[in-house]
Design brief:
CATH topology: UDP N-Acetylglucosamine Acyltransferase, domain 1
Strand content: 25-35%
CATH superfamily: Hexapeptide repeat proteins
Strand order of the largest sheet: 2-5-8-13-16-18-19
Shape: globular
Distance between the termini: 52 Å
Number of strands: 19
CATH architecture: 3 Solenoid
CATH class: Mainly Beta
Largest sheet: 7 strands, mixed
Structural class: alpha/beta
Helix content: 10-25%
């Protein structure tokens, strides 16, 4: 897939600027990352972006208010990524809004293009360490996803999900 020259230029500028601040320690580093991301993302309203967070296709990323994104998180905005208000994202999580087409066994996978799907975290979601969220998934308001889970399907609001693939094991407020 070829992109226009302007896309490569924009990406080059982003990766150069972001590369200068990606590993700066907090709190100064958080503020610097916010400043660079403010120039390139679709929308960003939180400044708690910890060191080592990787962002691809920032123009497809929206981050709400009072969000914390911890160390070594991967944000892929190619197919769209929307993170709602008051979300907590533990270190090592990945958001993958694209994957490879592999339907034709006679054609190398790298030549078959990509599938995209918007990833949405509604408000007040908490993801444990190492969670993977795949393309086209919406995680509903108030969900909690356990460490190292792989979310392949939508989760309804207030769900508690764990595992590979993630399965619902409860609802928040059940035992209140």
């Amino acid at each position: 897939m070829r992109y226009p020259v302007a896309t490569y230029a924009r990406a080059g500028i982003f990766f150069t600027l972001y590369g200068l601040v990606k590993y700066l320690p907090p709190p100064l580093g958080d503020a610097c990352r916010f400043a660079v991301l403010k120039l390139f993302t679709a929308s960003i309203r939180s400044w708690k972006i910890k060191d080592g967070v990787t962002v691809w296709f920032p123009e497809g990323v929206s981050i709400g208010r009072n969000v914390t994104i911890n160390e070594q998180v991967f944000l892929d905005g190619f197919g769209g990524l929307e993170i709602g208000d008051h979300c907590r994202i533990a270190h090592g999580c990945s958001f993958l809004s694209e994957d490879h087409v592999f339907d034709d066994p006679a054609t190398p996978i790298w030549q078959q293009g990509k599938r995209t799907g918007r990833v949405v975290l509604e408000s007040d979601v908490w993801l444990g360490c190492g969670v993977r969220v795949l393309r086209g998934v919406t995680i509903g308001h108030g969900c909690v996803v356990g460490a190292n889970s792989v979310v392949t399907r939508d989760l309804p609001p207030l769900s508690i999900a764990v595992g590979v693939p993630a399965r619902i094991v409860g609802q928040r407020g059940e035992n209140a």
